[in-house]
Amino acid sequence: MERNADRLYSCPFLVLQLFLLYIWFLFLRHSDSYYSVYILCGGLGLVALLSNYREKPALERRQRRIVAVASVLFAAAVFLANLAVLRALVRDTVRTLFAIWLYLEAFLVFLGSMSVCRNTLIFCFRLLRARRDEPKMPTKTQLRRFSLLSMLLLCAADLLVFLPSMYPGVVSVDSADQISQILSGVYSNHHPFWHTMIIRFFLSIGMGLFHDLNAGIALYSLFQILFMAAVISYSLSTLYRSGVPLGAVLVFLLWFALLPIHLAYSFTMWKDIPFAGCVLLFVVSLYRILKKLDVSVREWILLALGSLGFCLLRSNGYFAFVLVTLVFALLFGKQQRRMLLLFLAVLALGFVMKRPVLKALDVRQPDFVESLSVPLQQIARTVADGKELTAEEQALLGEIIEVEQIPALYDSGLSNPIKDAIRDFGNQDYLVSHKGAYLKLWLGLLRRYPLEFIEAWAEQTKGYWHGGYDYWVWTTGVEPNDFGGRQTVFSLAAFYLYFVYQDVFTFDLFQPLLSIGLHFWIVCAAFCLNLMRRRRVESFLALPVFAITLSLMIASPVFSETRYDYALFTAFPFLLLTAVYGKDGGRADPAPAP
Predict the structure, then answer these.
(1) Is it the case that residue 142 has pLDDT exceeding 50?
(2) What is the pLDDT of residues 425-454, one digit of tens each?
(3) How far apart are CA 120 and CA 503, in angstroms?
(4) Is 56 left (phi over 0), alpha (psi -120 to 50) or beta?
(5) What's the CA gap between 594 and 592, in Å, rounded?
(6) What is the domain partition of the chain in residue ranges?
(7) What does the CA dihedral 486, 490, 494, 498 come to, rounded to 10 degrees?
(8) pLDDT, tens digit, for every residue of 227-240?
(9) Which residues contact 366 (CB under 8 A, 6 or more apart)?
């Protein structure tokens, strides 16, 4: 049953929600997040509130529940991300009444966040439900022409930056380490070995044909430019083929071609870039098969390649793909047995390639401490805050790190100082052999100091699920090295123009375009709207991004590094436009694959 009128849009509740929005904007001025993101979200929430007040929306019970859960989660994200800010404000005040007001204000901000999310979701749902336009399908000629031109445009945009000013590509510290492994023949899976092998393939060609390591780096950069352009063109062409208006597709074609994050990453030698391309390839080919959009053997091959890259090109990718497979089996397993078998085969192959094969090749796995970023930060936070430890806890920590150094080393948004201190102490074997004791230590501190643990987790991961933060997004040039890699600038004018163009996007007006958290919020909103409209396939498409982000929330070494979640940016247009366009779903499951 639908409600004829929602009581939350009566006049008294309208006034209350306007007051909550005022407090929301006022308090969040203190936040260390991008205020421009709050203005954008709060402004949309205000427009939605006034529009909903005029229309008095009516929702089914199921839809109201989805909106309620999403609103609470959004409010919790805003509150937790600003918990440290609130505690700092309270700590700095000497007036008890003012401290009480700050806590009350934080509670009102929580309610205001719920209002923003609730009104925005209902407003967007109303707009989508009111749409009646029928999709206009392109002809095969139009589709082929768009596919070709979009790929050419993407390649041209990247090459116009790469060739004159960034040759042979961007080689960071991580990239230099991978090249050093190739030249020494001593490999580690700290950076995924199979991505290192892709680099090795192109370096071998460059050295063989041109006797120049930089030529090999350039060949890798060209490969990555072509690969990413092809996958992005494939995704945009699929949107066009599915009935998304050409104008909307062109907007995101320009978004990919002109946004500096996509330009810079196209020729940066990071595993995160081809990984993001494989995630997008997985999402698009999966969509085409489930929606029966010109399905051929090609789609199944691309799905297999995307799945394998998903598993192999980032350490957290395999675990994210396990989660995706489990949920797929629950939702579609009976109807899509062939696809489920493909996913299981990829998981098996990925495990063999990541474990037995690497062991046979004598490739070192990452050390154990690398996977403990969040729990180590939580323990370090309690020590840095001067919380009391028992003698047994003190002694156990003293086996792996100088406990007295922790307060000076602890960085709330970066786990490397603590992890490096444990490595330098040189007793990781004790940590590995006493995992149970350290788990007990962690659980004991969690029980006694839950607020410190929550705050430490939020500060370590908040960039992936909240707002946006000032932190480096891209790097340039070739890291100083001893293997002869060097940057060559063929045009100083192009070089300086590129840097000026990047700097423009640091202005407040453009900050939302680079915000991980804002893009994550939009994908979450698209997911909720798909759930409200009973669109199971479109809802499932967001799961790979959610699984990757969840893995970062569990084990990220840094609070907001864009490249770690670049898959969110590559999949974003596809997830958004498939949510906006298309008909509401029903209760029926998708038909089995042919």
Answers:
(1) yes
(2) 999 999 999 999 999 999 999 999 999 999
(3) 32
(4) left
(5) 6
(6) 7-130, 140-365+490-580, 368-464
(7) -10
(8) 999 999 999 999 99
(9) 188, 189, 190, 315
